[in-house]
Amino acid sequence: MQKIIVTGGVGYIGSHTLVDLIQNGYDVVSIDNLSRSSVKILHGVEKITGRKVKNYEVDLTDKARLSKVFEENQDAKGIIHFAAYKSVSESVEKPLLYYRNNMEGLYNILECIIQYNIPNIVFSSSCSVYGMVEKLPVTEETPFGEAQCAYARSKQHGEQVLTDVTKAHSFKTVLLRYFNPVGAHSSAEIGELPIGTPNNLAPFITQTAIGKREKLTVFGSDYPTRDGSCIRDYIHVSDIAQAHTLAMNYLIAREHFDIPEVFNLGTGNGVSVFEAIKAFEESTGQKLNYEVGSRRSGDVIAVYANNTKAKETLGWKLKYNLHDMMKSAWEWELKQQNS
Ligand code: UD1
Asked: Which residues contact 16 (CB under 8 A, 6 or more apart)?
């Protein structure tokens, strides 16, 4: 079995990817300091797959301990690097925290990859690298726009660093630009587990519907869009996870290449905040308490993907629609209430 190191394996996309890798014949180890995740998720992964997963509770900024993990796992065929902070609003308030954590983690990972000759890397990037886009949908050729927050800039910088370092060394790189992952595994054993008040729309919706939050605030209804709210490309987290396995298969099968391959991971459908709320209400039968508030700093007006490249090159096939995403997010919320 080929071994893959997954940083942030206990996180939201990381845990779904562990499941997908295991179910496609890979051996996995995770590195996750559990600072923004819970070991409960790892138990969920084990329940779904029937396999015990080793997690190294190591902070990526701790180079000495990180090196030891690589030394123990230098037989790995590849690494998928998820571990990073991801809140747009927090990054607006604490930009240095984002640069320090996301960049130092990446630099240390890259030094270890080079030292221990790990041949393949998949990097978690984001559609936020496109900034405020004018022409939609965005393709992988759409140039970087002005980053709207430190989180987005940390992803732009991460991609640039990987481009330079890949050119200079012998490993191969895929950059995956996620749009808006939502939903949970069909078993409801794993899902999004925000610590404290959620920043993202879907967990805020489900926590409001279940009564943990009083109401959802729609951030702005005066944007130049069809109903005045922002437009995003929501995509099921299990579809995103599947793309990581395919990207790893692709890297392993290919001869050396110098320039990272980039793929957009979105459905191609732009959905407004009001439409997302409606989809939640329709798919779950729940009525959501919401109000319209002011715009949120750092938000882009609209972004959605052209995903042709990932479909054609990686053989990526999307399985879930917006209703599936909302329904599975709700089932996960219900399951947590009952556990
Ligand atoms: C951003 C990034 C995305 C990244 C994600 C990580 C952009 C374009 N996208 O997603 O790449 O993966 O952060 O967290 O920068 N909303 C409300 N009320 C709420 C919460 C959200 O109206 O309580 C609205 C937001 O204004 C936005 C949409 O819902 O229009 C989605 O917001 P959110 O789930 O936070 O994700 P993004 O900020 O789009």
From this structure: 185, 190, 237, 238, 240, 241
Q: Are strands 271-272 and 261-265 parallel, antiparallel or unpaired?
A: unpaired
Q: Is 86 helix (H, G, I), strand (E, B) or coil?
A: coil
**How many Å is the maximal CA-CA distance in the chain?**
55
Report the alpha-carbon distance of residue 172 to residue 53 in Å, rounded: 26
| Residue 26 is a catalytic residue | no
273 CB within 6 A, ligand 1 = yes
Residue 298: pLDDT band by 50, 70, 90 thresholds?
confident
Ligand 1 contact, 209 CB (< 6 A): no
Helix (H, G, I), strand (E, B) or coil at 169: coil
Measured from the Cα of 182, ligand 1's closest atom is 34
State whether residue 294 is helix, strand or coil: coil
- Which pLDDT belongs to residue 89? 86
Q: What is the CA radius of gyration of the chain?
A: 19
Helix (H) or strand (E) holding 106: helix 104-115
CA atoms of 286 and 278, how far apart (whole Å): 10
Residue 339, pLDDT score? 75
Q: CA-CA distance, 136 to 115, in Å (whole number)? A: 41
Ligand 1 atom 8 nearest Cα: 128
Q: How far is the CA of 79 from the centre of ligand 1 (A)?
A: 27
3-state DSSP percent of the chain in helix, strand and coil, to 5: 45, 15, 40
Pick the more confident residue, 298 or 136: 136
Instruction: Find out whether the beta carbon of 88 lies less than 6 Å from any atom of ligand 1.
Output: yes
**By three-state DSSP, how is residue 272 classified?**
strand
Name every residue whose Cβ is closer than 8 Å to that of residue 77 and which is 6 or more positions away in sequence.
2, 3, 4, 118, 119, 120, 248, 252
> Does ligand 1 have an atom closer than 6 angstroms to the CB of 299?
yes
Question: Reduced to 3 states, what is the DSSP secondary structure of residue 229?
Answer: coil
Q: Is 25 helix (H, G, I), strand (E, B) or coil?
A: coil
DSSP string for residues in 59-73: -TT-HHHHHHHHHHT
Region for 50 from its dihedrals, namely left if φ exceeds 0, alpha if ψ lies in -120 to 50, beta otherwise: left
Pick the catalytic residue from 98, 151, 234, 304.
151
